[in-house]
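Hi there, hope your week has been kind to you so far. Do you reckon you could talk me through the fold, stretch by stretch? Thanks so much in advance, here it is.
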Amino acid sequence: MANIKSAKKRIKVIDKKTALNRARKSQIKTAIRRFEEAVVAGNREEAVARFEYAQKRISQVASKGTIHKNAAARKVAKLAQKLNGMNA
């Protein structure tokens, strides 16, 4: 463990940020899972609503720097592909 006061503070700050990032990533995973469940169920109306929510959460998390903006765009594109595949 650290002996210097500033190092102790940094450890506390890092722990808080790590917990926050984990929570944000968990929210994304949950949103994606719920969207995919709606797609599998074949409920287009619910899938569209869950897609919009997932897209919003992914964008918010990317704006905070938890995930890279290109990774966020890739996730959204993959979800959009699944949503569009429901029509075919």
In short: The CA atoms of residues 20 and 26 lie 10 Å apart. The helical segments are 5-41, 44-63, 69-85. DSSP finds three helices and no strands in the chain.
